TrEMBL record:
Species assigned in the record: Methanosarcina acetivorans
The protein's name: Heavy-metal-associated domain-containing protein
Superkingdom of origin: Archaea
Signal peptide: none
Domain annotation HMA: ranges: 1-58
One Gene Ontology term of the molecular function aspect: metal ion binding
Classification via Gene3D superfamilies: 3.30.70.100
Family annotation (Pfam families): HMA
């Protein structure tokens, strides 16, 4: 992710996933923070959605509260 278009695309893709409640994209750091209901979706679905859209090198860091 290097531009506003990528930020908007990633935000749109992830927010379209049922169970996702919040998406925060930081373009300079190339990070995405996602808040979702783990009873409805999971990180695998989010990663696969981005991979299918052509985004590569996706790593996952999980913070549970």
């Amino acid at each position: 992710m290097i531009c506003k278009y990528c930020r908007d695309t990633v935000t749109r893709l992830i927010t379209s996933i049922n169970g996702v409640s919040r998406v925060s994209v930081n373009v300079p750091e190339r990070t995405v923070n996602v808040t979702y209901d783990s009873r409805i979706t999971d990180s695998h679905v989010i990663r696969m959605t981005l991979l299918e859209a052509g985004y590569k090198n996706i790593w996952e860091t999980v913070k549970a509260f």
